[in-house]
Structure formats: structure tokens, C-alpha cells
Write the C-alpha cells for this entry.
Amino acid sequence: YDAPPIARQGVPAARRYAEIAPAAPHALHMPSHIFTRVGAWEESAATNLRSAEAAVKGAEYNEAYHASDYAVYAYMQLARDRDAKRVTEEVLKVTDFNPAIRTAPYAIAAMPARYALERGAWADAHARLTAADREAALAPEDLERLAIAAHLLGRDAESAEVWARAHHAFLDRSATPDAARGAFWLGFNALIEDEP
């Protein structure tokens, strides 16, 4: 059910799954995929905080970064910036992760990038999202953020390229309304490029 058109059907199972294995970090994290798709931000933040805590206790440090990344994203959707910053700062203290597993390096770049974008720090957000994209392909929501930052920095060709990637990534996810938003911005960019 980890796809927007059917995610709502998975909510009851996700809520139950989040309670089955309270010491298993990945089991605690997985329901947040459903919660994110339906905008259940409080539940996403809560289950990911439990996941990160269990991961640190179990020395699963990459999992702690992955869960913290999702918690930060949820907090940003709730406009709980202080909580997002606190979670980021806490997990960045965890240094014993495996850099060969991309979840930690990606989260290290993506969490501060999202925060920077929400604060209007376009150059910082652009640099951090670009770095995260080098670690692992950005999620379509983060591609949108990168496209916006590039546009606001006057990098219109780059912005259009990233909007195209976001559009296709949303299509691959069967997220038609999100894909349409990407197509709109691609069209808008094409229109303003053709203006004299």
C-alpha cells in the first residue's frame, strides 16, 4: 500500500504493525511509509522517533539516520521547525554508522537541506540537496525542493532538468497529481524561457 492511490487502505495495518515489534527499528519505521503517503505526520514522527531510539540502542546506526530523516520530514510538514532541528542535531551526534550504506550519508545531507529550504536559504538548500542526490537518488519530493532552489538561484536549465526527474519519479510511483504538478512547472519554465 506504499503508493498514494491506495495508501489510505494500508493505514489500519500500518498502525498495528508499528506496535508489533517495539524493539525492531525497521519494523517501527516501515509504517511511516504509509503515514507519509496519507499525511499522517504526527504518527510518522512518533513511530520514527521510536525507531531511531531503538536503532541507537541496538547499534543499528544507519537505521537511526533513516528513521530520523523521516521524522524530520514529518516535523517540517507540521511546521515544527524546532523539533526538526532537534532531531537533526541529535542524530548527527551518531558517528558510528556505515558510510557504505547510503541511508546515513543521504540523511546527513537531506535533513539540513530541507530545513534550509523551508527557511529560505536557497543556496544552502541547493548545495545540500545536490550533495544528497550524489549519495543516493533523491525522492521525488526532494527533487521538487532541488528544482525550486535551482530556480530561485537563477539556474533555470538545471531547474527544468530536475523538475523532469521529479515528474518521472512521481509517475513511477503512480502519483498522478504530483506528476501533474511537475509537468505544470516544466511547462511554466518553458513559457518563461520563450518570453522576449
